[in-house]
């Protein structure tokens, strides 16, 4: 048997107020006082009221659907970001349509071309690591569809962006290695062309320069974000005539890959070569030795980016914002020389 849901008229009748007052209270408009709004919300919950988004969408040209583009969903960071997005979207009655690009620029473009924007209110996007050109996103915005970038952002596209503080996080990670006595510090960087890759690289370089330590181009390796990339990067470093004594990796997965390569070579992470990552993936606390890292506010990034998108949807002339959230240094065994 189909479940019965109350309507706005049912709520108005039960409270002996007008339908328009109930409607405005549910939409939280400025001309309804807090007491009346709470009374309406309580009665709506009691009567099992559910908004009819199909009907309101026809009136407001709104679908209550939001597309989310992620490079991946199986790793800790993006799954946590998505959880933050879900928390805000569902609380405000929005459905999420997830698309995963697998870090493939062509796939990203194909997804964009196949989307039905008439059935979307907006998009949340973390760009592919290969997506140097992001003109397709600017075209979407120019056509009136709100877009908010998070984590991996398109730097030259004019819209809201939510990021962790990549520069200061990288600076702090590198300075932590220096404070622990390491002096020849390499950087396993992300793919070139991404804003956060450049920001983390700059933080690393500035920390070295502040402490008058050498910057060696051969100690800076750009590659993918996965564990295998970190493994291969470390092998490449260890073929050099002058070897580093510490590594700052662009993320924890690359750091773990480097540590696995060290173990195969009988090199002790921490004691012989310091390692610090960036993310605070759960594996960083489990691997032995445990991995020092910069913890990213992944859940908060998802939550804030979704709220910004809803602001853009509700107010078409909403001024774009750039939100930068701080990370936190977590010291573990991989940066301790005297364990």
Automatic annotation (TrEMBL):
Keywords: DNA-binding, Transcription, Transcription regulation. GO terms for molecular function: DNA-binding transcription factor activity; transcription cis-regulatory region binding. Residues 6-60 form the HTH lacI-type domain. Gene3D superfamilies: 3.40.50.2300, lambda repressor-like DNA-binding domains. PANTHER family: HTH-TYPE TRANSCRIPTIONAL REGULATOR GALS (PTHR30146:SF109), LACI-RELATED TRANSCRIPTIONAL REPRESSOR (PTHR30146). PROSITE patterns: HTH_LACI_2. The keyword Signal does not apply. It comes from Chitinophaga eiseniae. Transmembrane segments: none annotated. SUPFAM superfamilies: lambda repressor-like DNA-binding domains, Periplasmic binding protein-like I. It comes from the Bacteria. This is Transcriptional regulator, LacI family.
């Amino acid at each position: 048997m189909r479940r019965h849901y109350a309507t706005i008229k049912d709520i108005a009748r039960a409270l002996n107020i007008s339908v328009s007052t109930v409607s405005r209270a549910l939409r939280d408009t400025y001309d309804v006082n807090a007491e009346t709004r709470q009374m309406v919300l309580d009665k709506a919950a009691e009567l099992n009221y559910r908004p009819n988004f199909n009907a309101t969408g026809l009136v407001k040209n709104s679908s209550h659907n939001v597309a989310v583009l992620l490079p991946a969903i199986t790793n800790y960071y993006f799954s946590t970001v998505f959880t933050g997005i879900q928390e805000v979207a569902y609380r405000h009655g929005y459905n999420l349509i997830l698309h995963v690009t697998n870090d493939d620029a062509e796939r990203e473009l194909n997804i964009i071309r196949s989307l039905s924007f008439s059935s979307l209110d907006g998009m949340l996007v973390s760009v592919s690591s290969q997506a140097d050109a992001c003109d397709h996103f600017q075209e979407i915005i120019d056509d009136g569809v709100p877009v908010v970038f998070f984590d991996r952002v398109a730097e030259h596209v004019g819209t809201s962006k939510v990021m962790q503080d990549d520069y200061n996080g990288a600076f702090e990670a590198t300075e932590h290695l220096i404070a622990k006595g390491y002096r020849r510090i390499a950087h396993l960087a992300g793919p070139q062309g991404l804003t956060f890759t450049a920001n983390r690289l700059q933080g690393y370089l500035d920390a070295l320069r502040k402490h008058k330590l050498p910057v060696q181009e051969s100690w800076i390796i750009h590659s993918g974000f996965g564990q295998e990339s970190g493994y291969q990067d470390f092998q490449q470093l260890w073929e050099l005539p002058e070897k580093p004594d510490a590594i700052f990796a662009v993320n924890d997965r690359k750091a773990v890959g480097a540590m696995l390569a060290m173990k195969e070579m009988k090199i002790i992470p921490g004691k012989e070569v310091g390692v610090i990552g960036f993310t605070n993936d759960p594996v960083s606390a489990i691997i032995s030795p445990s991995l020092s890292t910069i913890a990213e506010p992944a859940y908060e990034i998802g939550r804030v980016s979704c709220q910004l998108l809803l602001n853009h949807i509700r107010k078409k002339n909403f001024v774009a914002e750039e939100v930068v959230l701080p990370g936190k240094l977590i010291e573990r065994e991989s940066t301790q020389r005297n364990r």
